[in-house]
User: What shape does this take?
Amino acid sequence: LDPGSHQKVLMKSGLILLIVGHLNFITGALVHGTVLRFVVTPRDTVSLHYVIANTASVIAALLTISCGITALMLSHYLTPAALKWALLSLSTCSTLGCLSCLLGLLVAIGLTLGNQGRALLAPCTVTNTALAPVSRDCPFDPTRVYSSTLCLWAVSLLLESMEIVFSIRCLLLTLDLLHL
Assistant: This one.
């Protein structure tokens, strides 16, 4: 590839990583803010897994955003070796972080489907979920918490997959730029 095509690919990949990273960050914040902050109990391993997987997803999104910014910077300035090495390390960390988050979210979805969302509804003491929105026994509206959480996690899975693909793309392009 010539330097002009390197610049175009880096710019496109960097912009995609920025957008996808921000979307994944927002998705993780929504899941945490609407559901997980009420669900977490240190003694419950399922809810603890939910929080760890979601927090790791937010951290991986921040790594992806950093990788996107570095790719955009490298698309404008192809000569600095330090920038190339920074992109190589960030894209590697982003790829591995997103892959581990992808696996963690798959386990969280499996656990949720396996226990029909009982861990998500654990803070609610109301037995009839139709009455829970008018009750003060539940800190959130439990009528849609199960489906909303699963949908947001599915969106996060899709975004994590995109982050992996474009981080690997940056990684391979950086390896080519470094002649490794």
